[in-house]
Amino acid sequence: MSRLNVALIGAGMIAGEAHIPAYLALGDRAAVSAVCDKEAERARACAVRYGISRVYTDAAEMLDREKPDLVSIVTPNQFHVPMTKLALERGANVLCEKPLAFHRKDACELYALAQKKGLLLMACQTARFQRNYYSARRYTEEGVLGTSYYGEITHIRRRGVPTWGHFLDRNINGGGALVDIGVHVIDAMLWILGSPQVKSVIGTAFSGIASSERNIRWNRRECGMLSDSGTGFFPDIPSIDVEEFASGLMLTDGPSIHFKVAWAANLPSETRLTALGDKAGMVVPDLRIYSTFREDQADITPRLFAIGPYDSLPFSGHYYLIRNMADALQNGAELFVKPEETINTTTAIELYYKSIEKGGIAFLEEV
Fold first, then answer.
1. Residue 229 confidence (pLDDT)
2. What is the CATH classification number for the domain harbouring 355?
3. Which of helix, strand or coil describes residue 136?
4. Considering the entire predicted model, what is its pTM?
5. What are the C-alpha distances in Å from 225 to residues 220, 292, 315?
6. CATH code of residue 83
7. Residues 319/321/322/326 CA torsion (nearest 10 deg)
8. Are 27 and 21 in contact (CB under 8 A)?
9. Domain span including residue 298
10. Of the residues 184, 329, 331, 351, which has the fewest C-beta atoms closer than 10 A?
11. Do both 33 and 94 map to the same domain?
């Protein structure tokens, strides 16, 4: 494919701030020809902003008329599976925003459909495209940690509940903090540890801060709107039916992994992934290795350099992910996010929410 004909299903924030700019950064390698959104005005506004020629409100019609080589699925979560399936059935390669699916069975079926059609499908697990995470993965592969036996995930926003879109609606978003921001660090942790198979999860969930707190200033950038650093008072929300805070224990066929993820918590904002092995321990994103050197205990801080030209941009991971997909379609490159890895991350998500429903441990055999 000398030049990719690209279309988008969804015209919200992540489409306009991440996907479209990343396609434009490819220059002559890609052209965004159409955008579809069920809200016509939003689709038109997106098209005007980026000079996109055609606007649709029906995804099937757009796919039939435009016949795109590549489609970005940037809808609310509950539409990821049906829209991905629709695009694949119409013959398009697909980049789908996270999470690809809430159920392991659905993710497996989507990848099977892509394989049957001879198409590429990749989930937008963009946290991997950071030099510190990439190096952590490589160190693990090379045996720096030895045998890994424990992992720990912390991803906390002190006050960062997203209030735009449908993030707070379970029927549309499917879940809260875990499936919004937690999916990135869960995927990264599993990937760094060599993608051990998730076997079981026991989880807890809490909500209450955003629906009860009043007259406290919130920062929109902390809520995930990376292009907006404005502050203001959080709007009155009578109730939230998704989790603000998620925690639990994930057992794999390798290390056990504790996790806590929050949109809002009375803790410092922090992202930290910890991996322990019998030779060394490792912490990211401030990549540090704790081990020994000769007869001494030693702390190692590698000097890292940028992956490439996009590191300083908001949503930089999308630029690298989309470039990887273009390289795969145009040059035969290997996809950076592999089907089996996304299926494993999907399994962790499904088991977490099943555990909440059960009030106990959820096992792989149940899904």
1. 63
2. 3.30.360.10
3. helix
4. 0.95
5. 6, 42, 10
6. 3.40.50.720
7. 130
8. no
9. 128-311+345-366
10. 331
11. yes
